[in-house]
Structures are given as C-alpha cells and as structure tokens.
Amino acid sequence: MRTGTKLGLSLAAVLSAAPLMIITGNGYFILLLLAGLPAAILFGVDLGRELRALPAPSRNQRVLGLALGVPQVLFGLLCAAIGLILVAWILYNLLIETLPQFRIPSLPALAVGPMMILVGLGWARTAFRRASLEQDETGHDDSGQNPWD
Questions:
Q1: Cα–Cα nearest to 89, from 108, 109, 118, 73
Q2: pTM score, two decimals?
Q3: Exposed (0-12), middle (13-18) or buried (19+): which is 71, by Cβ within 10 Å?
C-alpha cells in the first residue's frame, strides 16, 4: 500500500471518530482517534520524505514535501526541549537544592535527557533533507552495497 493511501486512511479514521461517537453513542470509537492520529502524523512525515526524494518534483510536490516536514521539526524540537528540561531538573536538584519529590536517579536515567536532546535535534535537522528513495534506514541501497564504504 502506498504512503499516500495510508495517510488518507488514517486521516479518515481521525475525522470519522467524533461523528461516529456522537451518532452511535458508543465511546469505543475514540480508539479510531487514538490509533489514527499518531499514524497520520507518522505517515505524513514519511510522505513528505518521499516527496522530497523525488528526482524532479513539481512545484506543488516540493511545497507539500516541505510542509509535511514541519511536524517532524516540531516533534524534534519538542523532544530536545523535554530533554533540556530533564537535564536542568536533575542538575538543579543535584547542585542547588534537593526538592522533596526528587530521588537520585540511576545511571541509565541520567542518560535519558542528553539522549532526548541528541535524538530530537537530529530528527529536526534531517526534516527537510533530500533523501534517496532507494536508500533505506540502514544506509544500504537496493544494490546491496553500502554507500558509506
């Protein structure tokens, strides 16, 4: 199934959730919203990446590809901001004043903030980058050769 079709179906699920809940009085249709909204965001980001990877996109495809990269930037910056808040909270409690609701975290918990900062900034940085359609996330193209070698 193509990414555009997946995006359309997830948007249909999101937009049909509230009317179906109102018409039927059944609250279980909220599950359409809970499943469709994250799917629509992710499929939108994926469709934007595919549109930016086209070899000769039309003006509309280029604009839509850039517009669909905006949620990726926003979520990347949000992730980095949450990571900064976590680091600031831990440093404040360790160096300035220990608040009653603070427990000294374990070593892996100390790494969560910096990792969120790195992942968020990396995701925001790559939002508008042109990528090759043949290349998958592992860096291998369809020919089986690693382009980094």
A1: 109
A2: 0.69
A3: middle
